[in-house]
């Protein structure tokens, strides 16, 4: 009887461990996607700054 109870306990513990690992993986994937979107936004921002910098350089040259 104790063996069956231990087996059921470990089965539940295993399920909890698997669920915890899935949750951790899901959280890591969400964090990765967030960082990729931040990188994408920063690239657009840098591109806009480079264009503005070039425009200002041309304006200074023409004066």
Structural write-up:
The protein has 63 residues and is mainly alpha-helical. The chain is built from 1 helix and no strands. The model has no long low-confidence stretch (mean pLDDT 89).
Largest sheet: none
- Helical stretch tally: 1
Instruction: Tell me the Rg in angstroms.
Output: 27 Å
Question: How large a portion of the residues is in β-strands, by DSSP E?
Answer: under 5%
Uncertain parts: none
SSE arrangement, N to C: H
Number of strands: 0
What's the N-to-C terminus distance? 93 Å
The structural class is: mainly alpha
Oligomeric state of this protein:
single chain
Principal-axes geometry comes out as rod-shaped
Q: What is the helix fraction of residues, given as a range?
A: over 70%
Mean pLDDT: 89
Keywords:
mainly alpha; 63 residues
Summed up:
This protein has 63 residues and is mainly alpha-helical.
